[in-house]
Design brief:
Layout lengths: L1 E9 L3 H12 L4 E5 L8 H4 L2 H13 L7 H27 L4 E5 L1 E4 L4 E5 L4 E11 L3 E3 L13 E2 L12 E5 L3 H12 L3 E5 L11 H13 L3 E3 L2 E8 L4 E7 L2 E7 L1 E4 L3 E3 L6 H4 L22 E3 L10 H16 L14 E3 L5 E5 L2 H6 L4 E7 L8 H5 L5 E7 L5 E7 L3 H13 L4 H5 L11 H6 L4
Parallel strand pairs: 1-2, 1-6, 2-3, 6-17, 8-15, 9-10, 9-15, 10-11
Antiparallel strand pairs: 4-5, 5-6, 7-16, 12-13, 13-14, 18-19, 19-22, 20-21, 21-22
Length: 455
């Protein structure tokens, strides 16, 4: 029993690994536990943000059209080299710190301050005054007959390591499903999305969602809305997908099926009951605004606590705990304002704040500025790079000129949205942002023209 530890961290995600390094450099003894050597560094660099965006980039820049499995194999190889390098670097960053003890094995609670690590050869008991759970989330497996990941039925992790399918069926019209559909279509796969909603991207305004749908259609993606998948039947060379629309039964055959119906907090095997840690209806670990669980000394960061499932939120969770452990303990989740996000379609859709529909539901008096990218004269960069699809939309408070939200679908939108989010956090008005000086030619220049529509 190692009783000299100050903190045990379960899971090597962004929040956990950053916290481990910071605490170790401040004289605390830390144990970092990761279930698999393939996941050193966390989801983002191994199976999430980095590998998928590498594949998306290669799909977008290829100079051929049609189905091209050899090009896909080349892209997969490049991705694997990238993730291996990042995984090695992430391991080295913590391994070189004497105050960090690294364990590869499954962690489970044996009490409120004790954790057992089960490796291939032994079981190790650890004790610490503080324990941080950072185990992330897993793709949700829906309650559909035959919906078991394996063979030709995939989740967002396994599909990245499969052969390029001639025909891919995506079950789910949310962000993950849309992003993967766009990516595989640009590698030449025929893609069909079965979306149980009345329209895909239902959280977006109809005009914004329509731009995404239009870009997907250009890539050959077929979307079937209000489609309920009832059964999947996998065989050696195909998957038969049965679904209903308006009570009528249909079926189609696919080379692969992607189950893209959200993610579930990963608490499997943690034995939270032994520590008394409470969980919510979705399996998330319940935390307060300081990321404290129901048990004193136990905290949860990242996807596992049910918050927004973004790497940069996990990083902000780290900041909150670092302030708890080393600072004055005032930082909290409720301080977060204007958190942006991006779905990497082609071109990418980035958004922050309220949509027009949400603002009206909350009874704001609003002004709306919206314009198709192809019509923004002051934004030549899309024309320069040959990608003029998309839309720029702002929702502004008519009373005080504060920006309530924005949706940007265009080249570089994943970068421009950060400027808009910063403006919102600093209470920069729409008029002030409109009159800023931006470099030329750049995508940022769209703000001058589109916000000028509010005059």
């Amino acid at each position: 029993m190692n009783q000299d530890l100050d903190v045990i961290i379960i899971g090597w995600g962004k929040g956990g690994k950053t916290l481990a390094g910071t605490l170790a450099r401040n004289g605390q003894r830390v144990a970092m536990i990761e279930a698999s050597a393939d996941m050193f560094g966390g989801t983002c660099i191994n199976i999430g943000c980095v590998p998928t965006k590498a594949l998306i980039h290669d799909a977008q820049i290829r100079d051929s059209v049609g189905f091209d499995p050899q090009y896909f194999e080349h892209s997969v190889k490049r991705r694997d080299q990238l993730t291996a390098m990042m995984r090695q670097k992430n391991y080295a960053i913590l391994n070189e710190l004497d105050a960090v003890a690294l364990f590869t094995g499954r962690a489970s609670f044996t009490g409120a301050d004790t954790v057992r690590v089960s490796t291939d050869t032994e079981q190790i008991e650890l004790r610490a005054a503080k324990i941080v759970i950072n185990t992330g989330s897993l793709p949700t497996v829906p309650a559909i007959t035959g919906a078991q990941v394996g063979g030709r039925i995939h989740d967002s992790t396994t599909l990245q390591h499969a052969d390029l399918p001639h025909h891919l069926v995506v079950v789910g019209g949310g962000y993950v499903g849309i992003e993967f559909a766009s990516m595989f279509a640009h590698y030449g796969s025929r893609v069909t999305i079965l979306d149980r909603g009345t329209r895909p991207l239902k959280k977006e305004d109809p005009d914004v969602a329509a731009e995404v749908v239009s870009a997907l259609a250009d890539a050959g993606v077929k979307i079937l809305s209000a489609a309920t998948v009832t059964e999947l039947s996998a065989e050696s060379d195909r998957v038969m997908v049965q679904y209903q629309i308006a009570g009528e039964h249909f079926q189609l055959n696919a080379d692969a099926v992607l189950l893209a119906l959200g993610r579930t907090p990963n608490t499997v095997g943690l034995n939270l009951a032994a520590a008394g840690v409470e969980v919510g209806e979705r399996g998330e670990i319940l935390v307060d605004e300081y990321l404290r669980t129901s048990v004193e000394g136990i905290y949860a960061v990242g996807d596992v606590n049910g918050g927004p499932q973004f790497t940069y939120i996990s990083l902000d969770d780290y900041r909150i705990l670092a302030d708890q452990f080393l600072g004055d303990g005032t930082r909290r989740t409720t301080d977060r304002v204007a958190v942006p996000n991006t779905i990497f379609t082609t071109p990418p859709l980035a958004r922050v704040g309220l949509s027009e529909e949400q603002a009206r539901e909350q009874e704001y008096r609003i002004n709306v500025a919206v314009k198709p990218v192809s019509e923004i004269a002051a934004m030549p960069r899309p024309k320069i790079v040959g990608e003029t699809r998309g839309i720029v939309k702002f929702v502004v408070d008519a009373v005080d000129d504060q920006i309530l939200g924005a949706a940007l679908m265009h080249i570089d939108s994943q970068e421009v949205i950060n400027l808009v989010a910063l403006a919102m956090r600093q209470s920069v008005t729409a008029s002030e942002l409109r009159d800023q000086i931006f470099t030329h030619p750049s995508s940022t220049e769209a703000l001058n023209e589109v916000l000028g529509l509010l005059d």
